[in-house]
């Protein structure tokens, strides 16, 4: 991404962070598509972004998104901040992040979230909540009195964009839309009809 595109994204994200009515400004819909061609969307949190792309974290072994991304390493992200009536759509290829980057982020998480990463077999069938709570307790005891290491199956992905669209609501559905597209290493900006 160019510094100008990144600055534009950062400006909108900061506006969402500063708005008192937006509980989680980094929430984004992640859309993937598996080998069966069935699209799937879910909300994840943006944990890091820079000129290289947009990073989120999850279980790389058992989550549905991991299955999709293993067979089709492309994804779309969508931020929508209702009170601001602004949206940003991002499309791109997806790559796994380096272990060092995953370790650093995992170490910054609250301890309960670290334990949760060990306890959850994300997206697999769960017999009942009591079973899950027993697994959580077992992991709390396992790591008592020491730092919780990152599970080997828990890491991040980076969406490396090739298309980014900014959308702002206007009266009479005559919205403002502009997109950036990457072609042969060069970013191009163009306006779109609403």
Protein architecture, described:
It is a single chain. Helix 4 packs across helix 5 (129-142). This protein has helices spanning 3-18, 64-71, 99-108, 111-119, 129-142, and strands at 27-33, 39-45, 48-50, 53-59, 74-81, 86-96, 154-168, 176-183, 186-191. It is α+β, with helices and mostly antiparallel strands and 194 residues long. The chain has one domain (3-106, 153-191): Roll (Pnp Oxidase, Chain A), CATH 2.30.110.10. Strands 1, 2, 3, 4, 5, 6, 7, 8 and 9 form a nine-stranded antiparallel sheet that branches.
Considering the chains and any ligands shown, give keywords for the structure:
5 helices; alpha+beta; 194 residues; 29% helix; nine-stranded antiparallel β-sheet; Pnp Oxidase, Chain A
Helix content: 25-40%
Low-confidence stretches: none
Anisotropy-based shape: elongated
Strand composition percent: 35-45%
Give me the strand/helix succession. HEEEEHEEHHHEEE
Number of DSSP strand runs: 9
Could you tell me the radius of gyration in angstroms?
19 Å
């Amino acid at each position: 991404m160019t510094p100008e595109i990144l600055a534009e994204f950062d400006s909108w994200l900061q506006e969402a962070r500063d708005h008192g009515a937006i509980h989680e400004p980094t929430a984004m819909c992640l859309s993937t598509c598996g080998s069966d061609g069935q699209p799937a969307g879910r909300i994840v949190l943006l944990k890091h972004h820079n000129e290289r792309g947009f990073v989120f974290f999850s279980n790389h072994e058992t989550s549905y998104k991991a299955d999709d991304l293993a067979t089709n390493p492309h994804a779309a992200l969508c931020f929508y901040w209702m009170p601001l009536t602004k949206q940003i759509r991002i499309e791109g290829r997806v790559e796994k992040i380096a272990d060092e980057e995953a370790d650093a982020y995992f170490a910054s998480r609250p301890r309960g979230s670290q334990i949760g990463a060990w306890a959850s077999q994300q997206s697999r069938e769960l017999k009942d909540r009591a079973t899950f709570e027993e697994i959580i307790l077992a992991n709390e005891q396992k790591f008592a009195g020491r730092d919780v290491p990152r599970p080997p199956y828990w890491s991040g992905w980076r969406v490396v964009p090739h298309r980014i669209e900014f959308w702002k609501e206007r009266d009479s559905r005559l919205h403002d839309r502009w997109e950036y597209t990457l072609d042969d290493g060069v970013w191009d900006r163009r306006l779109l009809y609403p």
